[in-house]
Amino acid sequence: xxxxxxxxxxxxxxxxxxxxxxxxxxxxxxxxxxxxxxxxxxxxxxxxxxxxxxxxxxxxxxxxxxxxxxxxxxxxxxxxxxxxxxxxxxxxxxxxxxxxxxxxxxxxxxxxxxxxxxxxxxxxxxxxxxxxxxxxxxxxxxxxxxxxxxxxxxxxxxxxxxxxxxxxxxxxxxxxxxxxxxxxxxxxxxxxxxxxxxxxxxxxxxxxxxxxxxxxxxxxxxxxxxxxxxxxxxxxxxxxxxxxxxxxxxxxxxxxxxxxxxxxxxxxxxxxxxxxxxxxxxxxxxxxxxxxxxxxxxxxxxxxxxxxxxxxxxxxxxxxxxxxxxxxxxxxxxxxxxxxxxxxxxxxxxxxxxxxxxxxxxxxxxxxxxxxxxxxxxxxxxxxxxxxxxxxxxxxxxxxxxxxxxxxxxxxxxxxxxxxxxxxxxxxxxxxxxxxxxxxxxxxxxxxxxxxxxxxxxxxxxxxxxxxxxxxxxxxxxxxxxxxxxxxxxxxxxxxxxxxxxxxxxxxxxxxxxxxxxxxxxxxxxxxxxxxxxxxxxxxxxxxxxxxxxxxxxxxxxxxxxxxxxxxxxxxxxxxxxxxxxxxxxxxxxxxxxxxxxxxxxxxxxxxxxxxxxxxxxxxxxxxxxxxxxxxxxxxxxxxxxxxxxxxxxxxxxxxxxxxxxxxxxxxxxxxxxxxxxxxxxxxxxxxxxxxxxxxxxxxxxxxxxxxxxxxxxxxxxxxxxxxxxxxxxxxxxxxxxxxxxxxxxxxxxxxxxxxxxxxxxxxxxxxxxxxxxxxxxxxxxxxxxxxxxxxxxxxxxxxxxxxxxxxxxxxxxxxxxxxxxxxxxxxxxxxxxxxxxxxxxxxxxxxxxxxxxxxxxxxxxxxxxxxxxxxxxxxxxxxxxxxxxxxxxxxxxxxxxxxxxxxxxxxxxxxxxxxxxxxxxxxxxxxxxxxxxxxxxxxxxxxxxxxxxxxxxxxxxxxxxxxxxxxxxxxxxxxxxxxxxxxxxxxxxxxxxxxxxxxxxxxxxxxxxxxxxxxxxxxxxxxxxxxxxxxxxxxxxxxxxxxxxxxxxxxxxxxxxxxxxxxxxxxxxxxxxxxxxxxxxxxxxxxxxxxxxxxxxxxxxxxxxxxxxxxxxxxxxxxxxxxxxxxxxxxxxxxxxxxxxxxxxxxxxxxxxxxxxxxxxxxxxxxxxxxxxxxxxxxxxxxxxxxxxxxxxxxxxxxxxxxxxxxxxxxxxxxxxxxxxxxxxxxxxxxxxxxxxxxxxxxxxxxxxxxxxxxxxxxxxxxxxxxxxxxxxxxxxxxxxxxxxxxx
Length: 1289
Prior knowledge:
RasGAP_CS; 3-stranded antiparallel sheet; Ras-GAP domain-containing protein; single chain; GTPase activator activity; 4-stranded antiparallel sheet; mainly alpha
């Protein structure tokens, strides 16, 4: 049964309802604030007792729960209640729970009974869900989604116009952005509706303004000032500063402006736009104001002249009324001339009128009554001018003439010196002219002068002939002296012959010394002096040591500087993407500048800390490290094993720092030899332990291969790739006419873009084509063939330049031999492909593709390779890569199949190159290094290493000691045991203040301190026989140089004469002087120096004792008269000569290397300066005035349509394009533009345009874009227009 509804107060019910209420105990009244009309009475009587129930449908119960949740202001519970299926409500979006709660609570409070029924909830939820989705679309700035949500009928927006959807979306986005900045994340339904109404009102106002503008143009054409004034005062047009009293002048100015526009546009139907009308009103008001001021000033001047009052004249002339430049010094002259001019004007008619007539802009007449102050642009009734007064034009002319005369006079006074100079120049010209005339006269008289000279010469010749005859008579007596000179010349020839014979004998003796198995003693004596160390030797040795230290330091500092610059690249990239702040980049820049400055100061003033700068205990510890690093340097097996015990990322850092430091970056031949030995050992170890298949070398990333390639392309200043590839790469890059592109689609698009850019007209060809479609055009095929021909020519040039350094070739040889040993079944072609992968693909190919990244070419700071140059090099590298691997062009590259024959021919050249590359001598033969090389050096090998690197190396050796040296009696184990535990920086250096608050930073800086270690073998001194042999040889050389003999035994047995003792003493004294000049680190041991000072006989006795000891050791034999010791000395002489030769070569190499490193440092410093300039520009841009004015560009749509930029505008005929104006204004940021659209001068819409986006669209082949959602624009021609007008391209 249906009952009645509750009344407004919810109290008055009928009797039936009260009975129902009484029949349902336990229910509170509030639970009945639902529609009773939907409740059912259920009869469950058993025939005796009547039992009745009220039944409410589930949706009504759900509605009651929803109202309760809304009333309790719990958004989450409200959301749960709304989403219950039994509520039967529209879709609810969980992310907008707060929105539902807020809006439904407000709606509930507005309800009279504070209760929302099901139908009210359904409508409200449906609208709220639509508004929520609209807000979500606004948040993501999805224009299409915004339009669709606005069109949704369920949202219930009023007065929505289809043509205004774009405006609705733009305005809503702006309102949403402003609301978000104020902390409001949600636009309500009312906010959106208000926005729609506002846009509709704006559109209506724009339309009304357009209609009003047309009315104004019609009134102007009619020539009725009153009608024109009426239209100008229309409220819809919203014009400013319209003064009804100026109606006539408005009519004249606007009519002239319209006539001028029709004339300029050659269009009789042209109309004035809103901004042009406003400009006309402003010009008219300005004309009237200027005319009034000028008339008033003219009146005041004439009054002063009539009263003969000169005092105010200057003040009046200086006022803005006349707009004159007045000089106070000419005040009296102004008054005098004006008074004279006025007196000349007599009153021809005593009945002259009070009117002054002025002509404004040579076009408009202006009348001013000097008595009443009345003014008008219409000729007054009975107009009679005041002829006795000066007009404004006359006053301006007189004052201007006086001022000009004064300025001219002052100019002459100020430039008196220049006038004097001009006079001097004039006088100089006259003098030069006179000189030239005199010179011309003399030149005309040249024949006469020649005749006079001939006569004088004849006279002089005759006198000389007489003197010659006299001299001949005197000379006859000197013939005897001539014969004596002849004998002298004969003796000179004899001397030359003797010198030639002696030279031949010396050469024969030297050949005997270096070639004979047992060189004779008399030959050895002649060349024993070569073992002496001269001042030049010491100087060269010191210079080599200094250069080596500087080279290593430069390499390390360049590496660190390069890392910091790379980090700066990353930071600037993040800054551009707004990932970090400018302050972070500035901070890193300051650190970079400070580090660069400190490195330069260290190079100039800093010395490496040596072992002598430490205490006795720490000196002993460093001596132990010297023994350790000598063992690691000369025995490559330890480091080879250590490399593979560490993770790859850790081993790479270890190689870049410790290993290359240990070998001084191969700065001399000894260290290059030892480093190659390490590479060889490590590569063999890696192939034996880690390579399972031969292709693993190609497909994987072998550690040693990577280390070798990195080192040979590294920053050690000896980039052989630069020497090989730089000339040809630079030639390719400098050839501006070289354009290689092997992609048909790219060639096609470039062709189309070139046509449009050059002609400025839209192309009729399609923009998106496939490879097959592109190849259908003959122009594309011709350009492709031209590129292929150029590619062959350039590739041949690069192929001729390809060659590898000895180090890379030797590693290639080791790689091939090791692979052949492990994989004996591998063919020669397979092995050569592996070699090619190393020598070309890994080593050379990246340097060809990116020469700027591998120091092949010199780049200026901030410079970069052009995309065309990069593509040219990439194409060459691609062809060489295919040729090196014998891979033909097929499949997607089938259009290049014409090069397959060329690829096969090139592969054979590569194959021959790879075979020849592996045919290199061993390092011992290449560098002439053997077991005696270190014995003749003046100084011990020195490395420059930081304390941190020493500690890290010690730690790694202890960590992997079992794998590196498994044998207990290994020398490495003994050295590590002697060193003990790994020290920290503080215990290593000591002398660190424990109370220093910056102790950690101090220790961190000290850890980077570099020290020099002179590497020596710990076991060198324990070999007594070698020491005896070395000392004996030195004593023998001293003896045989002063005492001759056929054999050593004979010399030792025959006593020396007094003369020989004297000669020996001179040799000893000379050596003592030389030893005193010898640097400390190059001196021999003390015992050897003492032996060198002994007399000759004592030296003989010591030689005999040593020979007996050596004979017992089996090193020499008395049976052959100790020829072995003679042979050893001869070998020392040969090694000494070889070492001097190597040292000179090393000196040249180090100087070249240092020069290259300094160039690299200069480039890095330029890069630092470039970054500093960039950062300074960024800082300047931050503080730059934001109100900079930019020149805008204005075009009508008709003009842009003629240029092909605009293709069409929706809903607008072509003949209406002339009334649409586009205003293009550059933004604050480079490449940003704001484009505004106006119709009849009324601004309609605007859009932001980014030039980079246009270039991206052009790159992607997009030909047409939409602007304002209505205008279709040609992308290529728009780029052409912007380039031409704003960038001058």
